[in-house]
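Table S2 (continued). Query chain:
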Amino acid sequence: MIVKRLNKEYALNLHMDFKTKYGSTNYKEPNVIFIEGSTYISPTISKNDYKEEIEKIKKTFIKNVKEIIGKDTNFSPNIIRYLNVSWNGIKMNKKSYLTFEIYLRQNETILLKEIKSKIEDITFSICEDLKKTILLENFNTYRNKV
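Corresponding output:
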């Protein structure tokens, strides 16, 4: 028996500092849509420990995502969101990898290509808010490591 893959993802080139994509594990019935993004961050101030700043970035990210998506009636208010960066490896003049994942449950199933513009708007807003938060905590963002 041949099992057909149902996952599908699309790259979104929306922001100069973030690589982003969206998709679903079932493109025929995308009840749950994921949004993923990544960037590199580098501190602008030298410190021994950046744990406090990273925790503020994570907390603000979670709050902002809920506010951005909470306005949209297409999605359930129950949102799963992660932001991952290892604070203990952050050093001056070194870029550290930061990723985020967001999982959205649709209230009424809309195909991925049909909901693309809405996902683009949401993703761009999330990236803009995250960049502002990162800058406020004295880090710069970079699309690529080099």
